[in-house]
Amino acid sequence: MEKLKSICKDTLSYIAARRLLRSSIVIIIVLLLLGTDLYNKYLSNKTNNYSKLDKEVSVEDENKNITSGTINTDVSSDTEYSKHTLGNGYSTLPDDYNQSSEQSTSSSSTSNNVDKSSITGIDLEILEGCEFNPKKDLKLKATDKDGSNISDNIIIEKNTVNTSIPGTYSVKVRVRLSDGQSKEKEFTVIVKETKLEVSLETFKPMKTNVNKGEKIGFEMDLKVSKKHVSPIAAMINGQEYPIYKGNENLFEKILNKKNYKIFINENNIPGLYEYNLEHIKMSNGSWISVGQNVVTMEVLKQEAFINNFSYEEQSKDKKIALKFDLEDLDNTASNLRLEFYKGDTLLESIKLDKMSSYSIDLNVASNGTYNIKILSNINLNQNINDKNTISNKEVFATNIEVCNIDQTSLIGNDIEIIKGQVFDLINDLGLKATDFDGEDITDKIQIEGNNIDTNTVGKQTVVVYITNKFGQKYTKEFKVTVIDTVTNDDSTLIGFSRIFSKQKSKSSYSRATNNSTANGNSSDTLRQSVDMTGIVSKSDGSMPNGILSVELPTAMAFMVDKDGVLTSGVYSIENKSSIGITVSVSEFRETKYNSGITVRPIDENISTMDRSNLHLALVGNEGRYVDLGKSITTPKEVLTVGPSSSSMIQLRGEAGNGKGKVVDDKGANEEFTLVFRINKS
Length: 681
Known about the structure:
This protein is mostly beta strands. The protein has 5 domains: 78-98 and 113-192, Sandwich (Immunoglobulin-like), CATH 2.60.40.10; 198-299, Immunoglobulins (Immunoglobulin-like), CATH 2.60.40.10; 306-402, Immunoglobulins (Immunoglobulin-like), CATH 2.60.40; 406-484, Immunoglobulin-like; 498-680, no CATH class. Helix 1 (2-17) packs antiparallel against helix 2. The longest helix has 42 residues, at 21-62.
């Protein structure tokens, strides 16, 4: 049975040494069948031996007292087996083998003076690369002078065995006996050479493409038949490169497959390249041919980028001057453009021709944080097509803080007033002042010359000024035209004023406000709120070409007192856009019907009607007005406003002179909706 075990071990060792994975299953099945047959024979023989032994014991018992004497066991021997093959660390001898067990033992009557000391073991042959344990694999045993087991005391004095290199080696052992003497013995170990087999399983690049100047890496999986031999270098395109250990996993370990990495020099020229792995150098000095293994990789172009970006504020011109360079050595950029934002609002978009250096001026209306983006379509590949192109890629982006733009301004409008009309300079001229940093300083407007005589017909001049926080003075001159009672003239503004001259009229300036209302009572006044709707783009203080930003009044009011005098408002419309605009009235309607106030056409005589009957008109610049009493079927242009400027719009009217019991007792109120239409000039 021990012989059968030994055969099985040797067979398994042979299979493992040569990695015969495919045939191992067949061999094991054959061995199992053979082992079963041998085991059955062994049991049969063992049964027969037990029978013979029983018979011998019976005879011995019968003749036990016939003869007496002593059996001499004084002879000891150091004889041992030699050249037992060890494959993968397995000996052909059983682990419990001890040559001394084959010697006869004496009875208790044996002489105590007999030297029974010994060292036993075996000479050995092992396969290249196998693990080697001298004590275990040489089956070393030792006995003391009295025959006691002292194998644990064995010392390996010399061991020259190198299982990585085939050859003949020696192992010298020693054991110290109980009387102080030592016993030595030397054994021979032969390391037998095996065939080196190398199999390239995979060879691939770590990345299908790399950037200019980036290391190019490859991965490969190898099977090597000798554990103590490993790859150290690879020949790629005729040049030798070192091999490094890669990633390991349990599955590959079971399959005896290992991962390795190779890195070659970077390439600074874009393009497609082929790399051929031809040979692998092993740690034992041998070169292994692995055939042709070609992979293709691409070195990408260098992406375009912005360099030397700078900007300068030009406060007086309300501009920022940009300077930057475009670096595009490999011609990767197309459809290049600059976008200029304040917050989320796009102020300007500029197409950029492909130049190396740029100088660009951008308009800014106010201080604050602005964002600049440079976008481009980018293609880094040799093959230029839509698939490889990244659209609208952000090549450059930065925020800039604008702090020194001069926002000092003084605005207003020339106006007409009727002779004898009460004149409020600030309100009626619609004056508005802004400091250097954009702060409203309308309340700091000073009058330099104000000789307006409302009782003198004709054109008169008023001069006003402000001083900003840096001590800079801004002066502006406005015209006030005083008109007399007009005759029947059908010119636009003069004719319109003539109609309203029948009554005293008052007008006052009003900035855009929310929830402005007009209320009336039965005693002396009527007041009516007029809601307004503006259809415009979002406002942030400054708008680019193509975008309109207009600040409009959200409410208008008029009031008719007990004497029929109509008081109305003057309202500012501010164009924050970079282009001029026209303002038209597209709709005027009652919000609440039959509430007591009726707006009638200007050409209709209301002199005999009570004061709940009105003429109303919206008056702009350049002599334009809209009769709100007439039905508006098409938008009526009333105002023109230049870029980044403002203008005034007035609500004028008159009330009837007749008596009315209802309005005298209860007053009247009404709500109207006025809709503006805004277009670029």
